[in-house]
Design goal:
Layout lengths: L5 H17 L2 H44 L1
């Protein structure tokens, strides 16, 4: 694969600049809101998974103690 030349790089930069320039504050707010919602969903999923594992270990320990009696 060849390294992109200066015209290709300039074309990509111009394309990104035009996309950025066309975004209004409302669009940026919507994108940020979606990103925060996705991050919150992922964090909630992660911590729920950890809580479920912890509760399962506690339950297994209780069952093991009950079987010893």
């Amino acid at each position: 694969m060849n390294k992109p030349g200066m015209p290709e790089v300039a074309s990509y930069l111009a394309g990104m600049a035009s996309i950025g320039a066309s975004l209004t504050l409302t669009d940026i707010g919507a994108v940020v809101g979606i990103a925060i919602a996705v991050a919150g969903f992922l964090a909630n999923t992660f911590f729920t998974y950890r809580r479920d594992r912890r509760e399962q270990r506690e339950s297994d320990a209780r069952v093991a103690r009950m079987k010893k009696r």
